[in-house]
Amino acid sequence: MKDSSPTRLAAYCARLGLDAPPPPTPDGLALLQRAHRQAITFENIDVLLCRPILIDSQAVFAKLVERGRGGYCFEQNRLYADMLADIGIATRPLLARPRLALPEGFTGPRTHVLLLAELEGRLWLADAGFGGSFVPPLPLEDGAEEATPDGARHRLRYLGEPQGEWLIERAGQRETTDGRALEHGDWQAQYSFDLAHVEQMDLEQANHWTATWPASRFLAGPIVSRVLPAGFVALTGTTLTIGRKGVGERRDLGTGEEWRIAMAEMFGIRLSEDEVAGLALFPR
Fold first, then answer.
1. CB of 22 closer than 8 Å to CB of 31
2. Contact 41, 60 (CB under 8 A)
3. Residue 203: its pLDDT value, please?
4. What is the pLDDT of residue 6?
5. pLDDT digit string, tens, across residues 182-230
């Protein structure tokens, strides 16, 4: 059960570096989403350490706000939905199929969750949990487009029936992504979704599969990212990349201690030496 006390909302805003909650408006939604992505790291470390990924409101608040950790989409957007509700923005979850860097025509499972928000009589997409790049809020309208400070643009397209599917696309520089994107100045698919009703047990099932399926991307190695004011920083395996509007820096981390320091300094995630050793990134 979610506790909607003002204390929790104040703690969340403090975690995001905000003095007060933004108003329940489109501008307020954009401000909150960007602050969330800059403050709370996308990461899968607990998946790799075989810890259970709990996605109830109490568990994600304790992990992402009180303990200062990050998480992946099922955690991030659970927290985001709860905090949006507390500022007066109603949402419901949608399940999506990631399409980034997948072959044309390949249909993967619904392993991403985003939110559908209602604001001032219009429907909006809200997503604080996509790790590949920064996706801004978009109105649920065919052709809706929004630019972001990293120089990229995102666009929403309605693909039509029979499923009533929608597609999020990105056009921008590869440097301000987590590295999965191909070199693309033109539009590239990010994920697709429909508006079907999603129950909590649907999310539990998708979360469990994503965290435990042997071939899951999230079991292949660390996937860590955070939005910068005008760019993106990502740590994939042992490779750290920092991108700001076309200027990219790439560095391979050579030791567990170097990796642990990068996690703390670049992502605000403080891990013990034993936790880093448990990831088996470097020969001992």
1. yes
2. no
3. 98
4. 77
5. 665 689 999 999 999 999 999 999 999 999 999 999 999 999 999 999 9
Give the pLDDT band of residue 3 (cuts 50, 70, 90): low
Copy the structure tokens of residue 9. 């909302």
User: 64 and 71 in contact (C-beta within 8 Å)?
Assistant: yes
pLDDT at 73: 98
Q: Kindly report the CA angle at 116 between 168 and 133, in degrees rounded to 5? A: 40
What is 6-278's CATH number? 3.30.2140.20
pTM of the model: 0.95
Which residues are tagged catalytic?
73, 112, 127
Helix (H) or strand (E) holding 249: strand 247-252
Span between the terminal Cα atoms of the chain, in Å: 43
- Tokens representing 160 are 């039509």
Residue 34: which of 112, 133, 122, 108 has the closest Cα?
A: 133
Per the listing, tokens 């990229």 go with: 152
SS3 8: helix
What gap in Å lies between CA 64 and CA 43, rounded to an integer?
A: 11
pLDDT, the chain, mean = 93
Distance CA 202, CA 209 (A): 11
Q: Hey, is 188 helix, strand or coil?
A: strand
